[in-house]
């Protein structure tokens, strides 16, 4: 299962974003559970899309040589969605990325958990499975093992040596906060703490998307504490009319000494239809906690 712990200490998984991988000396440590915390529209989703599409392209081209000697490509890309369909995600990729990357997105292993997510809501099941909308049939009881258990089963089977996107932590937290569901807040924290531990055996990367300032601040911090790394995506204001997307590292276990030696880095970022998410400028900044 996955990669031996001794080997993981020297192996990195590239992000596929060249300018970032060069700063990271190859990529993120294999076995990392990384929270992508973003203000709305600041680029955390685009970062995840660009990363996995670029990795798929590198694997397809067969030209990846491991620039830093210890970088390896994941065996598989998996996308876990709690409420969005593959058609929705695929259409978003088509609108935001070049045609060659859109075409390769079909290689993503997409898992839709929307049926489990909506199983005790008032949303008609036909909204999720049929093209015709109807109000006549409501699901009355949860089916199977429940959302978190189903996610665990999928991850156990697919996560080793893979890059995983979980879309999204915000949605899962809202699910657990709903008194109509069997899952409780303690369940989501246990899930993420377990995920942080087991990811070391899997030897890949787990990206989890979290929208900033939706959850109570203390709950948001509690979730972030479960992760190995937290990347912050936000907007910097320059005057009244100019806004710039930026990304910085809030924390990263195992990678932090390297970033501190460089006095940490703050990235000005951009999102374009030519390249997706990109680093436009690297700034030296002081360490902020």
What is this structure's SSE topology?
Layout: H1 5-8, E1 12-13, H2 18-23, E2 28-29, E3 32-38, H3 44-61, E4 76-81, H4 86-96, H5 99-104, E5 109-112, H6 114-117, H7 126-129, H8 147-158, E6 162-167, H9 169-177, H10 185-202, E7 205-211, H11 217-224, E8 229-238, E9 242-252, H12 256-261, E10 265-272, E11 276-284
Parallel strand pairs: 3-7, 3-8, 4-5, 4-6, 6-7
Antiparallel strand pairs: 1-2, 8-9, 9-10, 10-11
Tell me what the structure shows.
The protein contains twelve helices and eleven strands. The chain is α/β, with parallel strands linked by helices and 289 residues long. The strands form two sheets. Strands 5-4-6-7-3-8-9-10-11 form a nine-stranded mixed sheet, sandwiched between helices. A two-stranded antiparallel sheet has the order 1-2. The longest helix has 18 residues, at 44-61.
